[in-house]
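Case study B.
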Amino acid sequence: MKSEQSALHVRGLTKRFDRLAVDGLDLTVRAGEFYALVGPNGAGKTTTLRMVAGLLKPDAGSVAILGVDALINPVAAKQMMAWISDEPMIYDKLTPLEYLEFVAGLWGIDPAVSQRSAQDLLVSLGLEPHLHERCEGFSKGMRQKVALAGALVHDPRLIILDEPLTGLDAVSARHVKGLLGNRVREGCTVIMTTHILEVAERMADRIGVIAAGRLVAEGTLAELRQQNGHTDTSLEDLFIALVDVEAAAA
Amino acid sequence: MSSALALTWFARHELRLAWREWLAMMTGGRRGRKRAAAIGLVAFAAFLHIPAWAVIGRFADLQLPLDKSPLIVITATILLAWALMLSQAIESVTRVFYARADLDLIMSSPVRLANVFSIRIAAIALSIIAMALLFSTPFVDVLVIGGGVRWLAAFGVVIAMGLSAAAIAIAATIVLFRLIGPARTRLVAQILAAIIGAGFVIALQVAAILSYGTLSRFAVLTSDAATAIAPGMDSMFWWPARAALGDGEALLLLLSFGLVLLGAVMAIFSPRFADTAVSVAAQAGSSRQGTRAKAFRGGSRQQALRRKEFLLLRRDPWLISQTLMQLLYLVPPALFLWRSFSDSSTAIVLITPVIVMAAGQLAGGLAWLTISGEDSADLVATAPLPPARVIRAKIEVVLITIGIIFAPLVLALGFASAPQAAITAIGVIISAAAATSIQLWFRVQAKRSQFRRRQTSSRLATFAEAFSSIGWAATAAIALAVPLAAIISGMMTAGLLAATWKLSPRRE
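Model:
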C-alpha cells in the first residue's frame, strides 16, 4: 500500500532507551479505519504512538501521516492529527471552554467555528454543568473528557489515543466510544491502544498485536483467528496465545 | 497494637516522611546523590560561618545587664527569625492539608484521629525547629567562639521560637479555614508565607526611610524614639533576648511558654484537623469563572499561547505571592526614590541595583513557570507550530510582564535622573534576559504546582540565576559611579553566564 493512500504509514521505526523499545516496526493504517493496537505492558505501544505524534524522536525509520512525512514536515503532519495520552494533562486553572479556546487557537481554527464546535462537544460529553468551572476539581474521567473534546475541536483527520477509556465510568465510556465511532463514519481515522480487549474486539476494524517492539499479528478479528488456526475463540484467548508464543521465542 | 505503641509507630512514620521530603529537597529527588548533598551541606554550613562572623561577631562580647538599645536590636533580630519560622510553618501546615496523599488512608483507619493529628502537629513543629537549628548553628557557633559557652542558650531560644511559630501557624490556618473557607485559605496562607519574613525587614526599612532618610533598618532600632517607647526592663518582652544572652530563668520561661502554647493548640485543634482536611477534600476546586460564555478570540497561534500564559499567571496564587514579595522589596527603594527626589541625595544610586536584581529574580521565576511549568506539555508539543515559536511566545510573556512591572519605576527614576533611568532600564532588560536564558537552558518538564521545588531540579541553574542577578545589579550600580569598571564587572557576569550555558544539559 502506498503511503498517500494511508492515514499512517510507518517503516522500520526504531527506538532504544535502556533496552530496545521499538524494533524496526512496520505499520500501515488505512484512512477512515478504526485501528486498535494491543499488547502486553512494555510492548512498545505508547512509545510507537508517541513517535508518530511527534513527541519522541525515533532512532531510525519513517513516519508518514496522510502522505506527509512527519519527520521532515512535522508542523503539516500535526495540523491533521490529535493525540490524547492515558494521563491527559489539562490546565487546572482554565475552564473546559477556555481550554478548548486555547487548543483551537493553537490549531489556528476560526473562533466562530471552534466556539460552536467546543460547546457542542462539551455538551455531548455531559460536561454542560461544568463549562464555567476551573478543571482543578475535576475527576479523572471528567479531565479525560475535556482532553478528548480538545482533541476533537480542531476536527483532526487522524486521532491517536493511548488508553482513552481508562478511568471512565460505563456511561462516559459509551459516550466516548459513540463519539469516536461517529468520527470514523465521517471519514476520520482512529488509532487506539487499549488493554480492554473487548473494546478492541467490538470497535476496531483491524487489530494489531505488538510484543517486544514488533508487530506480531495484524488483521480483522476473523483474519487473526484464521492466521492462528482458531475458528471460534475470543480476542483475549488469541492475544494470550500470540503473546505467549512471542515470549517463548524471546 | 496498643494505643501508645500505635502513636510511637505513627510518630516514626511522620519523622521518616519529613526526613525523606527534606532529603529529596536537598538531592533534587535523585538517588545516589546523598553523599554529594551531605558534603555540599557541610561545606555550606562551614561557609555560612563567614557571613555569620561578619554580621554577628561584634556582638559576641555582649553580656547582661544591657541597655535598652542593644536589647532592642537583639529582640528585633530574634523577631525576624521568628517571622521566617512562622512563614515556613504556615507553608508546612497548608502542605499537610492540601498535598499529603495519605489523609484518606489515615482517616479511614481505626485510629483516634485526634491523637494522630497531634503527632502530625508535633512533627511539623519538629521539622521547623530542626531547620531553624540548622541555619542558626553557624551564628550561635560564632557567638560561642567569641563570647563563651553561655551563648549555647541561644539554641534553646531557637527551639522555643520553633514551638511557638508552629503553634501559631496551625491555629491561624485552621481559624482561616473557618472564616474564609479552604480555597481562599490556601491562597492567603501562601501569600502570607511568602511575604511574612520579608515584610518585617521591609517594614523596618520603610520606617527608617520615612524617619531618617536611610535604608538602614538599624537606624530605627537604635534610635532614641525606639528606646523611649520600648517596655520596661522587667517586661517579658525581653525574655527572648535575655534567654539568648544566657539568662537561665528567662530561657526556662520561654521554653515552657512555647511548650504550653503548642500543647494548647494540639488539645484545641487536633480534633478539628480531621474536619478541616475533610472539607478541603470536599471543596477542592469548584471555582466558577462566571456563567456567561465569552466569545472565543481569534489571532495567531502565538497569541493563543500568550493569552493562555497570561491567564494562568493571573490565576496562580504562588506567582501572586512571589510577585508580591518581589514588589514588596521594591517598596523601600521606591520610597527612598520619592524622598531623594526632593533632597537630590546621591544615595539614590542605591535604587538601581535593587531594581535590577528584583527584575532578574522575578524573570527567573516567571520563566520557570512558562517554560518548564507547562502542565499540558503533550498538547503543546503535538500542536502544529515549531518548538522555537512556542518558546518565543513564552519568553515574550516573561519579558512583557517584567516590562509592565518595572517600567513605571524606571519612568519615575527618569524624572530624578535620566542617565540613571537609562542604565537601570538596560540593567533590567539584561538581568531579565539572563535569568530567562538560564531557565531556558535548564528547562525540564514539570508541573506548575512544583514551582516551590523548582530549585531542586538544578542547583546549578538556581545558583547561576542568583549570581547572574547579583552580577548585573552590581554592574548597573558600578556603571553609575565608574563606567569603565562596569565593563569588567559586566564581562565577569557574562563569563558566568557563558560557563552556565556550557554546563547546561545538551538540547536537541
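Residues 90-155 of chain A form one domain. The remaining cases will be described in the next quarterly update.
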